[in-house]
Design a protein that fits this description.
Elements lengths: L3 E4 L4 E4 L9 E4 L4 E6 L6 E3 L6 E3 L14 E6 L2 E3 L12 E7 L2 E8 L2 E8 L6 E10 L8 E11 L1 H4 L3 H4 L5 E7 L2 E6 L9 E7 L5 E5 H5 L9 H5 L12 E7 L8 E12 L17 H8 L4 H18 L3 E5 L2 H21 L14 E2 H11 L4 H12 L9 E4 L6 E7 L4 H16 L8 E4 L2 E7 H14 L43 E2 H20 L3 H21 L9 E2 L5 E2 L9 E2 H9 L14 H12 L1 E2 L2 E2 L2 E2 L25 E2 L3 H10 L3 H11 L1 H4 L3 H4 L7 E4 L10 E4 L4 H13 L2 E3 L3 E4 L9 E8 L2 E8 L9 E4 L2 E3 L3 E3 L6 E7 L1
Parallel strand pairs: 39-43
Antiparallel strand pairs: 1-2, 2-9, 3-4, 4-5, 6-13, 7-8, 7-13, 9-10, 10-11, 11-12, 12-19, 13-18, 14-15, 15-16, 16-19, 17-18, 20-38, 21-22, 22-23, 24-25, 26-27, 27-28, 29-32, 30-31, 33-34, 34-35, 36-37, 37-42, 38-39, 40-41, 40-43
Helix pairs in contact: 7-8, 7-20, 8-9, 8-10, 8-20, 9-10, 10-11, 10-12, 11-12, 12-13, 12-14, 14-15, 14-16, 16-17, 16-20, 17-20
The structure holds alpha-D-glucopyranose (GLC) (2 copies).
Length: 822
């Protein structure tokens, strides 16, 4: 069942009912000011850091779940309603939400009045705009009253939810009914002391009334949907003093039949220099010059429209770097629009703020950020460069790293500490992707601190060397990498042994002297160790490269000798040296991560002399038989039915959820890429479609989350709710699926000295054209694809047949025509 449809022309998902199975959200903002907005107007805004600079309040765990956002209440001749449906929930004659690239448009109509609000954050502004158009669609003249509503958060989102003894006494606002560009409410809590920032909620017209005190507006015992002021039909002009400051402005246009009026509402964030915080000697009135300047840029509808056009152009430009035209519209819309959009959102948000992440929890992950980079580096390479340098600066001198760092300070944070032994190798992955994309080798000479200590700065290349050496220097009895606190799988905690409720599995180590080793890190080392060797060689460090390659070969051998269970790769050796992920056990026999990653790394791909299946083929065949379901491949099988103290958090989840046999959409791509390595394009594309949201749109009632973005997890085959997704939006799934589809299924990927064209998508997509801008040149790649298993493309470049599959990089500005036939 569907709850809307894609509009590919406008790059929107159109939701046609408020009654989706869950709130379906979008993100506004691309630089510093960000908002979450659901299809019903729910969500919140923050400036740069969702924890430290929360502008508006949102209650997770609320009933109903999505009340709290920017709302417009209508009182039309005594009939009170909200065009977003929530919070009033009055029936609407028409409802539509259009989630687009960085904007959301919500339209509600009732009783001959239509209200359409367009929400966006302009490219270079620290403000959320709402362009609101009220139209009289009836036959009679109407004078409705419109009341805006935002609830301010007291800046620190964590404190805002806990410290009521203080917070309920500190709220302060200022109201400006007759401002230079209309009316405004200023939120200035804590401005009198150490804060030099404030928020403004304004409209570009003179309001007939305002409210800033929540209890006055809502009524102390009402729900938000029963708000007293809109019901009464007139603002109370309340001025908050402590308690709960809000911003509400009312307007009452008279509209003839068919007539419309448009207003621009602004929610802005402003900082003042300490010396000019105040407008008066007595230091009682906020200096509003900057707010007025902001509001002057949105004083007319024409200005607002121009800012919106600039945002549309911004996205058109971004999305022109990689696009495909094929015979499959679902494929095209994922590649051209939604998957790349989600990659930008994960780049901006990391794992901080979504409807599953509260914005007060995690900082930026070392491994997550490096993987996110794989999905956005082609869109904003200069910001990729900056991100790499930030991440590398949180590395320790021995190559290991803080697992997370804070976006506001860019410093490593110790909450989760370090010792996730996969972390260092992701830095090589990120840097290699950046180098291939840009050819900017100068980044390797940038001086980058260790542990954010400038006195320890070394060139970035040295950081890669330490990353590489970290694995070499931390191996266990089988010559395989020690796992530390966990590898990619945060919940495989082989050195933890926790029996205390609530204790962190990631930071607890109750035993010492263990020898737990990870096959995942081993495969990762083969893949990224080889890339490190290549980088060294291209820097002229022939010996370093040769030594690195020898280490990579030693690891490959160790994996084949000690990491093979007979039908698939083992997952690990535990603390005591026992196998994890073996047919010998009744549960957790086979795990997805090492199968996909090993094949991706080319381990065991050689055909044996007897012509039978290679080790890699056997492993992926086992995946197909034991892990694949119609909703994607589960993480491991069978799921654990009881708590296994020696494995850690993984077995804490009920069977079929999250890391315990859930479908982790983040690692399905590794198997999909592995299948393309083996020439199995048909199976690869089939797997891709099982987890890709556009192909799941028709089962939205089962999937439940947004049909336009990936979710981190879909419940696995042993779960009670198999096929139900959770944790949409902020997941490494976005980057890895974009890498998979753009670079391996469609097969166009940046190589070291040219663009590689190596499609492997099977017979379902017989023809397609990829347009790829790389290093300033445009490649138009037309593919004719038989889809025959094992076939590889032969290429013609500007009419001339070439050897191999690498099209040499052309000078910036040129257009290269490539024909690929397979
Ligand atoms: C989450 C984490 C990621 C981890 C994965 C598997 O997505 O953000 O770092 O690799 O879970 O545990
Ligand atoms: C990852 C996992 C999650 C786990 C968390 C611990 O996000 O997906 O299951 O609880 O890491 O930090």
């Amino acid at each position: 069942m569907r709850y809307g449809h894609f509009d590919d022309e406008t790059r929107e998902y159109v939701i046609t009912t408020p009654h989706t199975p869950a709130p379906w959200i979008n993100y506004l903002g691309s630089q510093n000011f960000f908002s979450l907005i659901s299809h019903q107007g729910g969500g919140y805004s923050f400036y740069r850091d969702a924890k430290m600079r929360r502008l508006t309040r949102y209650r997770y765990n609320n009933i109903p779940s999505d009340v709290g956002g920017r709302y417009f209440f209508v009182n039309d001749g005594g009939d009170t309603w909200t065009p977003t449906w929530l919070p009033v929930k009055a029936d609407l004659d028409h409802f539509e939400t259009r989630h687009g690239m960085g904007y959301t448009q919500i339209t509600g109509e009732r009783g001959g009045l239509r209200v359409e609000s367009l929400h966006f954050v302009p490219v270079d502004e620290d403000a959320e705009i709402a362009r609101v158009t009220v139209t009289n669609t009836s036959e009679v003249t109407k004078t409705p009253t419109l009341f805006s509503f935002v609830e301010f958060a007291l800046w620190n989102a964590q404190d805002d939810q806990t410290n009521y003894q203080r917070n309920l006494s500190i709220g302060e606002v200022e109201v400006e009914v007759d401002g230079p560009h209309g009316s405004a409410v200023y939120h200035r809590t804590e401005y009198r002391e150490r804060r030099d920032h404030y928020a403004v909620h304004a409209v570009n017209a003179k309001a007939i009334g305002f409210d800033t005190d929540r209890d006055t507006f809502v009524g102390a015992y009402n729900s938000l949907g029963e708000s007293a002021v809109p019901r009464a039909g007139a603002s109370a002009d309340s001025v908050a003093s402590g308690w709960y400051p809000i911003g509400s402005l009312s307007l009452s246009p008279t509209l003839a039949p068919g007539e419309s009026v448009t207003y621009t509402f602004v929610l802005g964030y402003l900082e003042n220099p300490v010396e000019s915080k105040w407008a008066d000697e007595a230091q009682q009135v906020v200096n509003k010059e900057r707010a007025h300047a902001l509001l002057s840029r949105f004083a007319t509808t024409e200005q607002t429209d121009a800012a919106f056009e600039a945002l549309r152009d911004h996205w058109t430009r971004l999305l022109s770097t990689y696009s495909v035209t094929s015979t499959d519209p679902k494929l095209d819309r994922m590649v051209n629009i939604w998957n790349q959009y989600q990659c930008m959102v994960t780049f901006n948000m990391s794992r901080s703020a979504s409807y599953f992440e509260t914005g007060i929890g995690r900082g930026m992950g070392f491994r997550d950020s490096n993987q996110d980079l794989l999905g956005f580096v082609h869109l904003v390479p200069e910001r990729g460069r900056e991100r790499i340098l930030d991440i590398a600066a949180t590395q320790f001198p021995d190559g290991s790293a803080y697992h997370q760092y804070q976006p506001l300070t860019k410093r490593g944070n110790n909450d989760i500490g370090s010792g996730f032994n996969d972390d260092p190798l992701w830095l090589i992955a990120g840097v290699a992707a950046y180098l291939k994309e840009t050819g900017d080798w100068s980044i390797l000479d940038e001086q980058v601190p260790f542990d954010n200590d400038e006195t320890l700065a070394e060139p970035l290349f040295e950081h890669l060397t330490r990353s590489f050496r970290f694995t070499v220097d931390n191996r266990g009895p089988h010559g395989l990498p020690l796992i530390g606190r966990a590898d990619w799988n945060d919940c495989l905690n082989l050195n933890c042994f926790s029996s205390e409720p609530g204790e962190s599995f990631q930071t607890t180590e109750n035993a010492s002297g263990g020898v737990a080793e990870s096959l995942f890190i081993a495969a990762q080392f083969v893949l990224y160790g080889e890339q490190y060797a290549e980088i060294a060689e291209r820097r002229g460090l022939t010996e370093v490269a040769a030594e690195a390659r020898a280490e990579v070969e030693a690891m490959r051998t160790a994996v084949l000798e000690h990491g093979w269970d007979g039908g698939w790769f083992l997952r690990a050796y535990d603390f005591h040296g026992n196998k994890v992920g073996t047919d010998e056990h009744p549960e957790g026999k086979i795990w997805i991560e090492p199968q996909g990653f090993a094949v991706m790394a080319g381990i065991g791909t050689e055909k044996p002399a007897d012509g039978g299946p290679s080790v890699a083929e056997t492993a992926l065949q086992s995946v197909n038989e034991m892990l694949a379901t119609e909703h994607g491949m589960v993480l491991q099988y069978p799921a654990y039915t009881t708590y296994k103290i020696e494995l850690g958090e993984v077995s804490t989840y009920p069977p079929g959820y999250k890391e315990n046999g859930g479908i982790f959409c983040h690692n399905n791509p590794w198997v999909i890429i592995g299948e393309t390595v083996l020439g199995h394009g048909e199976r690869a594309f089939d797997y891709y479609k099982r987890i890709t949201p556009a192909y799941r749109e028709d089962i939205s009632e089962i999937h439940k989350q947004e049909p336009y973005v990936y979710a981190q997890m879909i419940a696995g085959k042993e779960a009670v709710r198999h096929g139900e997704a959770k944790n949409s939006w902020l997941t490494g799934t976005a980057a890895w699926n974009f890498v998979t589809v753009s670079q391996h299924l469609l097969g166009v990927r940046p190589g070291w000295s040219g663009l590689i064209v190596d499609p492997q998508i099977g017979p379902a997509v017989p023809e397609f054209t990829v347009r790829r801008v790389a290093r300033g040149a445009t490649y138009v790649i037309t593919v004719r694809n038989s889809g025959a298993e094992g076939s590889r493309a032969t290429l013609t470049v500007d009419g001339v047949a070439i050897e191999g599959n690498e099209v040499p990089y052309a000078p910036a500005g040129s257009v290269v025509q490539v024909e690929a036939v397979l």
